[in-house]
Amino acid sequence: MLNHFPNDGTMRTRTCTIGLALILTLWGTGRAQTDTSRWVFFPSRTLFAPLMANHEEPRMGIQQEIGTSNMKVAIGNSVDAFEYHTGIDTIRCSLMFFVYALANDYRGYRLKIDAADGFFGFGFNYHTRSPWSFRFRALHLSAHLVDGHYNDAIEQWRDNKIPFPFSRNYGEIVAAYATGISRCPLRLYAGTSYAPIVKPKDIRGWAGIAGWELQTPGSIHAYLAHHFLLLGAPTYIGTNTVESGVKFGGDSGRGIRLFLMYQNGWDNFGEYYNERNEFFGAGFAVEFWE
Fold first, then answer.
1. Which H helix or E strand runs over 12?
2. Does residue 89 sit in the same domain as residue 203?
3. Element (H, E) at 193
């Protein structure tokens, strides 16, 4: 029988040719852009900055629970990939990949990771010349118990809690309003999300969020942020997170934040989704979006 499919070498050659043509096309488009261009690839400055006190946002840093050995380690980023704008409206597409890990022990010069939550997805941000801005995100969340939750001495999972499949695939829309109080930038926001695919099934599909962020002016400034999450697991309970600190950098750009925080409500990590948690913490976060 004749083989109508090209061999691997031919396929690689064609793939490289197509990829090179695509790169040259995008590069040429970027070179030809002017101030009146409607398409911009990898634009500068973030159009919708991640919500400061929200656990489900890209962040890079460490948060230590006060009075326990629990430490939350965050690694991730959000990138605005391309933009389409007119004279007054701007819409952007962003890509997000981030992970939160719960370390329950860091003796012996290594972290023992108890649980890990991974997020990835994309979003669209919309902004006008008015104080209003909007964000839509589609995210996949999966949660896992890791080796730090396993007791090697007795070869059992700690607290008789074994790993189980957890995932939450959801779309989220948020509206934000930017204003100020005595020259201090203030952002108010509210939104909702819906997860058509969840495991376990007792997690409710609909959730609501709201919050605010207040910052003082200056390149080194204080800030205060409050985030509220209403989530059913299966009973709807509100989770409040309050974060206050100092940021070295612009109010919506690159910088380092040192903060204290308080949280009361559902646990942040998926494998503990139906357990309540209350704690104080301290940490830092590096913001490297422009």
1. helix 8-32
2. yes
3. strand 184-199
